Records
---
Amino acid sequence: MYNSQLPTDGSHAPKSTSMSSGVFEQRTERHVNERIRFLLKSFGLRTSLIRLKVIDALLTAAESDRSLGVRGVHSHLLDLDIPLSFLSVREVLKRLCVEGVITLNTDKSYSLHPQAAAVLHNE
């Protein structure tokens, strides 16, 4: 599809200074992803889409004073049209627990480990 705002010579379009909500949301999401990538790297883990999305789901829930278990994270990802299996989500949550990035709470919900939260907020 032709977009008159994009250059046709193959170069990247200049960054817009417009503060429309779509651009702002993309920049915010990119910033969050960069922070999560840094977090994973500091724990010696590779970045993967599923890890990014699982941690982002936990952060989003924490900002809303909610807690999510495996089913909650899985449902959140499905709501975002990210088609991951329940088992994949569960295995990622287990691995992040083992590595100390997140913790399993007594109510079977997951949250960011305090050390991981410190890494995220002090970047």
---
Amino acid sequence: MRLSPFFEELNSAYGAELDDLTTDSAGHDILAKRLKEKRGQVRQLLPMIECNPEMVAVAFHGGMRFPRPDIFNQLAGLNPEDLPPWALLHAAVQMQPWAKELADIVLQDPFGDHFLVITACLEYLQGKSGAIDDEPLADAARDVDSPDGSRDSDDEPDDRDLEEAGADWLSEQGFDRKDQFYGG
């Protein structure tokens, strides 16, 4: 998966924000407590969703599941102005009831739609954080010959298959296919 410069920078800031919330000065894990506080402050934090989305997006941490990772692999490679609206994407995100309530609050803001798309991508990337950093190692491990000389790469879906499925889904939603422009 290739991250756009936008998501590369924002994902790093999002991870740092989560790290800051995780422990207190004594080193105790207080992430759950701080996330609960953050969730209670979402209305007050709405002015920040456009300029510092990572600081508000953490309120959704742990509240989203992604049954169609192919879609988010492709979205994470887009620039913010190329992201689809939440109305097209929300069906590809399973949300905890509390996260749906937060989404309803956020959608009252003019930038809320765009923010939720960004938040979903950040949450997806956070769940894949090890996979992003270790991707070259994972690719090398997949391509190792098995003892009988055959390749083991058929056991897992090919990244190109996932990207193709994501491109198909976005195309079905009315977006131009990225490969039309880049010849890929």
